[in-house]
Specification:
alpha+beta; Deoxyribonuclease I, Chain A; 2 domains; 42% helix; globular; Endonuclease/exonuclease/phosphatase domain-containing protein; Endo/exonuclease/phosphatase; Endo/exonu/phosph_ase_sf; membrane; transmembrane helix
Length: 465
């Protein structure tokens, strides 16, 4: 199941061309919810505009009762979900979703920040407060904030960075909000001028809290090319996590610090395999992989639960020793449980550091929570949630994305090529990595150790073909 939420500063919705564009935008991207900003629609014209832009069975709410020019209009497909506003102001509308199999309870805030830095302070205050209220509720914030996070979010115009420019990045940091991983345009607003007068900025943003990244780890944003408006339209794609596939082998660098690691590698490599060098190499890698999987189940699988159990055992040992401090047996048990707990904590921290790919932070300071958050954001960022085919059609389902990728590489690999032009060693290394190991962190240690022994005979065998 895919849920699509759109937001767009249309800069006026009274003209027929923009109304037609908005209708096509809703239909083409199969939106379930949208937020239109700066509509400039008066109450006397609202019904007519809604008839032009809304597909059947849609409903809207707006902040027209606060601002007569309807700064924000939110629409949703009533056949798929129910939406109820929880707070409506001049600069934002927050909604809660119900009657939906996977979105119920989630909240979305559509933002149209004021042009005045002083008035935007109310928005920053709200985001800080709401981030506490929504700590355990999936919450996404999207729209035109009329602010940039950093100097690189603008091109042209004044380069000055005034004090009020710090308000937005400080608010996002204080609120523990994360940018939803995005593709498409970076600079989402264009002033419509050319030459030296051109100014472009990133004013449109999509953020989420940790709860929504946990509930929707594959969340993805797409900022579309500009059309009738001077702002890019944006789409937030929330896709239900696909059925769990077979887990690929992942080499953990921390294994190389274990005393039994080299013995495991040597025992796997001492197996006598009959066949050509490539078959021998991949067969031994498969044996080694099985043995490392068994080691993983013993040592590093469910590491956080093992840390939890070890901590409980250490606490119990401390209480027992406190009741009978003269017991040699209890003294030894307490020291052993403490040693076991500390070792597992180090394993857990190394595990999450490798998976999060945060290499600049040293181990030893119990950064597990930070690494875990970094891992979640990295997983979300690296997920492929959309592919576009040759006709320009977007595909979101896992099956469609897979079929597109397979067809692309079929065409690529099927192209004529001379075998003599192929570098033998490079594809051989790739083959070993694909068949044997795909480490998450640094270089694959046993492969580096043993590659030199087999490289020459493998290459010679291939050259003879």
């Amino acid at each position: 199941m895919v849920v699509s939420i759109g937001s767009w500063n249309v800069r006026g919705l009274n003209g027929i061309p923009m109304q037609n564009t908005v209708y096509s935008w809703i239909e083409r991207h199969k939106l379930d919810i949208f937020g239109l900003l700066e509509t400039r629609v008066m109450a006397t014209n609202m019904a007519e505009v809604q008839n032009k832009i809304l597909p059947p069975h849609w409903a809207v709410i707006s902040n027209m009762h606060i601002n007569p020019l309807c700064r924000i209009m939110v629409g949703w497909n009533t056949q798929k979900l129910h939406l109820q506003s929880t707070q409506v102001t001049d600069q934002w509308i927050t909604c809660q979703i119900s009657n939906h199999p996977s979105l119920s309870g989630s909240r979305f805030t559509f933002v149209y920040g004021s042009n005045s830095a002083r008035e935007r302070e109310m928005l920053w205050h709200y985001l800080r407060q709401a981030s506490e209220d929504h700590k355990n509720i999936p919450w996404a914030i999207l729209g035109d904030f009329n602010a940039i996070l950093r100097p690189s979010d603008r091109s042209g115009g004044s380069r000055a960075w005034h004090k009020h420019h710090d308000d937005f990045p400080e608010c996002i940091m204080d609120s523990s909000l994360h940018q939803i991983p995005a593709n498409g345009l970076h600079l989402t607003w264009h002033n419509g001028q050319s030459g030296q007068g051109t100014i472009m900025k990133k004013l449109d943003w999509i953020f989420g809290n940790l709860a929504i990244l946990t509930a929707w780890p594959t969340a993805r944003a797409n900022f579309l090319p500009r059309q009738e408006s001077d702002h890019s339209a944006m789409i937030l794609i929330l896709k239900v996590k696909p059925a769990k596939a077979l887990v690929s082998f992942k080499f953990l660098n921390q294994w190389t610090d274990h005393e039994d690691f080299l013995d495991i590698v040597k025992s796997a490599w001492q197996h006598r395999i009959i066949g050509n060098p490539i078959y021998q190499l991949t067969s031994k890698l498969a044996i080694l992989k099985q043995r490392l999987r068994a080691k993983h189940r013993r040592c590093t699988s469910h590491i956080s639960y093992k840390v939890y159990k070890a901590r409980k055992e250490w606490m119990q040992a401390q209480r027992g020793l406190d009741r009978n401090p003269q017991s040699e047996m209890l003294r030894g048990r307490e020291r052993q449980s403490a040693k076991n707990y500390m070792a597992l904590c180090a394993e857990e921290e190394a595990f999450f550091k490798q998976r999060s790919r945060v290499q600049w932070l040293s181990l030893g300071d119990k950064n597990t929570r930070f690494f875990h958050r970094s891992l979640m954001h990295r997983c979300s960022r690296n997920t492929i949630s959309r592919l576009q085919d040759d006709t320009g059609m977007d595909h979101y389902s896992t099956q469609d994305i897979g079929n597109l990728a397979v067809n692309y590489y079929k065409k690529l690999i099927g192209a004529p090529n001379s075998a003599r032009e192929i570098d033998i060693e490079r594809p051989l290394v790739s083959l070993v990595w694909l068949v044997g190991f795909r480490p998450l962190g640094l270089v694959f240690f046993p492969f580096v150790l043993l590659w030199g022994q087999f490289k020459r005979e493998c290459v010679l065998d291939l050259e003879a073909l």
